[in-house]
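Lab notes, practical 5.
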Amino acid sequence: MTNANSERIEVLHDTEIIINTYLNILNNANRRWDYFADVRSLSLAPFAIEPIKKEMLDARRTRGTRLRFVTEIRKDNIVSCKEIMENAELRHLDGVKGNFGVSDTEYIAISTTDISPTGSITIPHAVYSNVKEDVQQQQYVFDILWNKATPAEQRIKEIEEGTVHYESRIVEDSQEIIKELGRLTASSNELDTCLTPGGVQYSYNHFFEIKKKLLQKQKNGEHQGIRYISSINKDNTKLIKILLEAGIHIRHVKNLPPMSFGVSDKEIAATIEKMEGGMMVQSLLLTNEPSYVNHFKTIFEELWKNGIDGKVRIKDIEAGADLADIEVIHSSSRARVLYLDLIKSARKEVLLVFPTTGSFMRQERMRVIQSCTKAAKEHKVHVRILMPPDKSTEQMVQNLKQNYPAYINIRYVEEAIGTRGTILVVDRKHSLVMELRDDSKQTFDEAVGLSTYSNSKAGVLSYVAIFEKLWQQTELYQKVKETNEQLSKANEELKQAGRIKDDFINVAAHELRNPVQPILGIAQILRSRKMRSDASHNNSLTIDEDHKLLDIIVRNAKKLLLLEENILDVARIENKSLKLDIEECDLYDVIASVVQNTRDQIDNSRVELLYNKGEDGILMVLVDKSRLEQVLSNLLSNSIKFTKEGTISLIVEKKDNQALVTVKDTGPGIDPEMLPRLFSKFATKSERGAGLGLFICKNIIEPHGERIWAENNSDDKGAKFSFSLALKN
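Output from the prediction step:
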């Protein structure tokens, strides 16, 4: 199915189409192509299919696309897996079932691939989607599976060398800890370490010689290298320089996690001790469980991504530059922790700007407001909050104002305040700006994108100025609110006047019907009697004149009755009270009945009404039958009114799951000035008619979920009016 944004979901059943779709997704992939496959499918595809293999290599080489695969690595597919590892990242997961691939913008789920004895590949079916929400969901699923999976190198080594024994243990003897850390360091193929400044000193004291040997192995291509994350300050720049010169890569992070840890390609070691001044570690967790290893690798990579290059940090320190921290935080979970910590640290003032009601509600659920009230209660911190008004938050805001009148002040601003992020300023010393990525999400971590922390005086005071400006503008907002309330009251009075007008129209229309119906009924009775009486007389001139007079009375009474019905229908449409009684009926029968009635009403011998019933026999539709008759009658009457001679054709066509009904005439066509407002109320250039018929037709067809339109004939004179109806399945 397709929507207005060209997003679509398709089920594909042809192997060639599926493979071509797969190739197109790869060709469109920019930053990522992730593939999750069972053993059989991965052994056959993608690397068994040369075009796909070539497309993957092109994506990686020309666009730098990251290629990642997750499958179950076993003895019988190690060769295929090693081939994949030459060009992509591969991880192992036990019991993999199913196949799907996801890029930056597209997603495909493929049924299990099969191969015939002749070697031809068959893919029964696949599901394709480029709907943003589907793609994001599958990216999220793949990332979860990827993080749970084991690196392929580790899995292959386990298979080729035998089963690895996994264990987790606590070491509490300081000398044994040094021994174990030395062993972990020496046996590593890559080593990442997150340490406090004291931990860096501890590592240098006990393991620097081992690490120099690893760095030499790195030069020979036998080791992946060593990386450190720590806080770099004036006191430890000399030591950091020694490590940098030795070849260790180091980045500075101000807010380190509450533990020090090292992770190699095989195992991790972690301690919660601060190791001040290089003191001995008294307790150490050691484990080679793959889930723990992957978890700490992920933590390290996140910290590394947000860190500042050690050489740049030292250069700033030595130059005497402002050492204020300005940090871009990519992890929303880390921003959440920092957010709460900053509020807890407040001693004088907290300024908060919530861009949307959703932002306020999410952060209230994660106890931000509770932290503010605690700061007000325990430390007499003054809290000022700017947020959009909303009924869902009114009671909460009133409670805060009543319970903490001296310390918590909340004012309302419109959502369009020029920012799409939550702004926090604490004690005019720290600022944290959290970008709003998706306001529809329920949790902070899902809704927030990048965050920026700063303790730079100039930067923080800039946000203070923004807050104070908005705070002053709330007074203007209050005046605007009062004006809006006055306008709302005036609007209600106008609505009341409109209701009075509608009531008058209804009464007038019904009062019009009261005399019209007797006139029409009596005139028809008199005409019938007159015809019987005249049959016995021979004065044909008198008979014709009497018939003409009675016909004029009947015709004009019908016009008055039609006008009354149209006025009532327009009133129902404007009041949204026009109801449809949907039923199943044969479109051909409805049309035939309307055509016959219309032919009886044509008094112009130079106009012929043409209609040929389709050869299908029946054409079932779900419609309001009487309203459909009204639409057909209006369109035919409209054509009769404007066609002086020639033909009026009623045509029915079947297209896909729809019936297309067209009324085509040979009249003068539609005035170009009328086309844009043809289906509007009172739109007419005719001296006859009130211009209500087409307006009513539009408001009958569209509530059926269909459409009606008009155009001039391109190949001949005249106009045609068309509308569609859904066929009953």
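Observations recorded by the TA: The radius of gyration is 40 Å. The longest strand covers residues 646-655.
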